[in-house]
Each structure stands twice: as C-alpha cells, then as structure tokens.
Design a protein that fits this description.
Elements (H helix, E strand, L loop, with lengths): L2 H10 L22 E3 L11 E6 L3 E13 L2 E10 L9 E9 L4 E10 L9 E2 L5 E2 L5 H10 L3 E2 L7 H6 L4
Length: 169
C-alpha cells in the first residue's frame, strides 16, 4: 500500500495519516490542539518539542528547533510517542518531513526509531512522493510549522525523554 493510498483510507476513517516507515502503529490524527504563535516569538535554539496532536495510541510532537530552510523548501522533525508504555521505556519514532512552501506540498524523507533506552537508531530514507497538504490535515500542520512559523500551544520540552518523564502531557 502506498503512503497516499494509506492516508486516503485513514481519511475515510476520520483520521489523517502521513507517517510511514515504522513498525509502530501509524495512526496520525489531524491536529487537535490550538496552534498558538505566528512566528512573533524569537527563533528557538536547540530542540523544542511541542505536542500538537493525539490519536488513540500516540502523541505527535514537532521540534520547532529543527526547522531548516533552503529556498522555497523547509524541513522539520515530527516525533510519534506511544501514549502508554512501561516506566523507563523511551521508545518513539522521529520522522523528517520536507515542505515546499510555495506549492503547499509535503513529504516524508526519513524515519528513525528510538529504542527503549531512547537512543536513536540509524535513519532510513523513506522519500515519499510530494503531495498537496490538504487544509486541516496532518500534512497541513507540518506545512504550517515548516513554512508559516506556526507553533503549537504549550510548553516546549528539550527532548523526547523530558516529555516522557513529564508524564506525556
């Protein structure tokens, strides 16, 4: 099943998915938390993970500090963290997304698994085809983070480990 057809089937089930390449459940939901800022805040330095969406199994965080820009394209990291796990289990997935700001397209470029100890494995390329970010979708949120200087509400965490240690709020 391609990423596009996978996303289309999840949209029909009222959930929008754009994440692929992991053995973890791929159950991305459309952003549910209010996007707060419009870039008027100072540029972040270092990782700044903020939760922006939840599904029945996962919470999705964006690292605003990972934003890279190259002409009309921008890149940003999104993490999928299980909502429940045994104490001391820091496993999660970090996906690298790219966005074409002018045309409103996004695609997943690489994925990295983090083991139970939180250590990242080697990234593996995914390189999905570019697709339009539909308004209100998960991909639209990624485009807004990468291109429009939008940030989710809530306090940032310096790492996924810190987020998990805080009780996955």
């Amino acid at each position: 099943m391609t990423a596009k057809s996978h996303a289309a089937s999840l949209m029909a089930a009222a959930a929008i998915a754009a994440l692929a390449g992991s053995a973890m459940a791929q159950d991305a939901a459309a952003p549910q938390e209010e996007i707060l800022t419009d870039g008027s805040a100072p540029a972040p330095t270092g990782p700044q993970w903020r939760a922006f969406s939840r599904s029945s199994n996962s919470v999705f965080l964006v690292d605003i500090g990972s934003l890279t820009e190259n002409g009309d394209e921008a890149g940003i990291k999104i993490a999928r963290v299980p909502l429940t796990a045994p104490a001391g289990d820091y496993s999660h997935v970090v996906d690298d997304f790219a966005a074409r700001c002018g045309s409103g397209q996004t695609h997943l470029t690489a994925s990295t698994d983090a083991l139970e100890d939180g250590e990242l494995t080697d990234a593996f390329p995914v390189d999905e085809p570019w697709s339009p970010a539909q308004p209100g979708s998960f991909d639209d949120a990624i485009k807004q983070f990468a291109c429009d200087d939008m940030q989710p509400a809530g306090d940032p965490f310096p790492s996924i480990r810190a987020y998990i240690d805080a009780g996955r709020p």
